[in-house]
TrEMBL record:
Signal peptide: 1-22
This protein's UniProt keywords: Signal
Highest taxon, organism lineage: Bacteria
Name of this protein: Virulence factor
Domain Bacterial virulence intervals: 44-230
Amino acid sequence: MRALILLLLSLALPVSSFAAHAAPVKDDLSLIELPVKQTSDAPMVIFLSGDGGWAALDKGLSTQFQLNGMPVVGWSSLTYYWKKKTPEQVTADLERILDDYQTRWQRPRWLLVGFSFGAEIVPFVINRLPEHYRQGLVGAVMLSPSTSSDFEIHVSDMLTHKARSYPTEPQVKTIRDLPMLCLQGADDDDDDRLCPRLNQPNVTTVTLPGGHHFDDNYPHLYGAITSRLNLRSDPQPVER
């Protein structure tokens, strides 16, 4: 009997060892967590950063969500897209994020937010998500998007704007059943802005003061988003 037990344990070791060393989705995708202490029915936020990584606007707006009871999973585009991805790869990784955080944080409802480079990714993943993930999606927010994406970080794109491989506008036009916001700065000098091209009923275009970064007015930006999507604030202590 003792020999049998030892044999069974030895057979189990490779599986157990692999499980122990498997990278959690947070580490695997270099995610940023902004949790809240108490559960509520407010949605969690998946935030896709700009090509500069987890920088000022991404941090500032995410903090506003967190302070108002909406936990945030931040996803750095600079880290993730340093090597080229496909829309299908990104969608598969988003599903992993949802599987993990909807369970751990007990938040079946979620909001997808993207800034600049991240905003251009938003419609591609929505169109590829299976229906059971779409059911909990309360809305999508695109902040300062342009009309195309490459699913890869190019340093030259941070200095100049040029046509890229994946047009964004056709992807938005196929989404008809989800409230979407497209926010742009009144002083944004990007000639390739997506927001002015969108006029479908489920997409609300909002022009706010400032340029590409909305004058860094994160409380105003938060209010513009939540008021138009009818999202209730639930202020509560945050984890430190």
